[in-house]
Amino acid sequence: MIIAPPTGPRLLGFDVILIGSVLAAIAAMAVMLAIYAAVTVKDPMAKRIKALNARREELKSGIITQKSRKRQSLVQRSEATDKMKDTLKGMKVLQESQVKIIQQKLAQAGIRNKEYAVVVIFARMVLPITLGFIGAIVLYWTNTFPDWGSIKRFAAFAFLVIAGYKGPEVYLKNRANKRTNEIRKGLPDALDLLVICAEAGLTVDAAFNRVAKELGRAYPELGDEFALHHRVIV
Fold this sequence. Notes:
This protein is mainly α.
């Protein structure tokens, strides 16, 4: 005689105790998963804050490095200029009137650093000697141009010396002429914009600032001049 295993109460043909046991097991697993998620899941903002702090340190380090390099470059440039100035003063060739003339030419060429006037004067003294020495070696010592006569050799030598002396001045003059032409191109637009700004009720410094910003991309030379005058007015 076979004895059937005991069964619990049934509902719609399903064992109520068995279903309850399965649901209890599922509920226990859900509770365990919830506890595990609450314990192990990290705050998403913590990672974001950590990334922002790391980025801030990188930017700060980059800014400090950039400032340090810029400061070092300025110091080196100032030291080189001071050495040139001392050399020129020692040779009694540095005159204040000459420096002012060169500074004016630098300003016309768009170079605002007045210390470069010493560099130009020093270059006008050194370049003729350097180019003349190179020319003497090439033209007379190495005999690179054997077909040239004495007159042609001397003419080439004189050209190198004169080019070394006049070269910096010619460069500044060409740069100033180019800058003047660029300013003339954008001047009508600048005047029209100034009239519009005046009609809008802007002050003089605000109008100059607006013109410098609006025309700075199309005419950088003109924008630079208006920005300079704006700083002077302010």
